[in-house]
Design brief:
Shape: elongated
Number of helices: 5
Distance between the termini: 96 Å
Largest sheet: none
Oligomer: single chain
Radius of gyration: 29 Å
Number of strands: 0
């Protein structure tokens, strides 16, 4: 046995570094049409095949979390309240507005409270200036 063959045997039968290995796993990933087109364009600009570009991006990329847990919880609350408000609006059209008026007013009050808490929690937020006029004097 040659020295290279002995080394290969010790390494668990791995091929020497000069050879190309066959892929052992395949993965199917689905993208929306705009995401797919954006990836194709980036791969073309990088002079890579799409699979190479995705593989290199996945292995060399860094995952960054965009939202903290508090922001996600607030967003979920707002989405849930919006869904409830939509359901109540449909109900009011079916049964009449007066039966659902109390529920709608309560939801709007809670929504206002959550928005107030969110504005206090985020120091970078600025009040909306739309429709306000500055005093010129």
């Amino acid at each position: 046995m040659t020295n290279v063959q002995e080394q290969d045997k010790r390494k668990g039968g791995r091929p020497p570094t000069g050879r190309v290995r066959k892929l052992s796993k395949s993965v199917t990933v689905k993208f929306s049409k705009p995401s797919y087109e954006a990836l194709r364009l980036r791969a073309r600009k990088a002079n890579r095949k799409l699979a190479e570009y995705i593989r290199e991006s996945a292995l060399n990329g860094e995952v960054v979390s965009g939202h903290n847990a508090e922001t996600v919880a607030i967003a979920k609350n707002l989405i849930g309240m919006a869904n409830n408000l939509n359901q109540l609006t449909k109900l009011s059209h079916q049964r009449g507005f007066h039966e659902t008026h109390v529920y709608v007013v309560d939801l709007l009050r809670r929504l206002k409270a959550i928005l107030g808490e969110y504005r206090q929690a985020s120091p970078k937020s600025k009040p909306c200036e739309i429709g306000r006029k500055e005093d010129a004097t």
